[in-house]
Please model this.
Amino acid sequence: MAFAPILHAEWLKIRTLRSLYGALLALPLVSTAFSALSGASETSDPDFDPLFTAFTGVLPGQIAVIAFGALAMSAEFQGAALRLSLAAVPRRGRWFAAKAVAVGVPALLAGLVTAAASLAAARAGLGSAADGLTVAQQVRGVVGCGIYLALTALLATGLAALLRSGVGALSVLIPLVLVVSFVVGDTAGEVTDFLPDKAGQVVLHQTWDGTLGPWGGLAVTAAWTAAALAAGAWSVRHRDA
Model:
């Protein structure tokens, strides 16, 4: 079977799940609201980074995109959905690739919209504090943010396929982005710089002092995502539906 009709079928599945619509809608709403609050906060800190402040809302907002990726995959494990999908598309690798594209593309588009809205909302509050941001830095932040959020959604998709559970994927990733990187990061040193969330978020900063630069950090996140998708593909191909 050609790839295009498989992709169309997977896109139709995503369109019919209201929970996925809710997750994608929550992403820009939550992120923009938190970024607006951050932009209106005090900016006298000597380490103040106006670009990262503008994208602060993405940190809580990314939970929505994690939920989107995990739920899109875990829906296949409810009832006989995966069995029916594989009966229609016996080539499991091709089916899983279509699922990944169907998740990644809307996550990327939603991420770009979220990034642009967050930046605009925060800049309104930052005022002259954001005058030092160049156009190139802002474009890099918006594009990088969209890519980071798409990679995060795909990471959740791959992990949900491996664990055969959306709850399992959420149980791993949400503590990672909310606890490990912020709580453990201060004591574990540079090791946490290579975690998928910390590495990818370098692109949201105006300047950085760590080992990884903006695109190097995204490359690390992409490597984590590729590993999760490869593991998820292995699980789909070698385990019973």
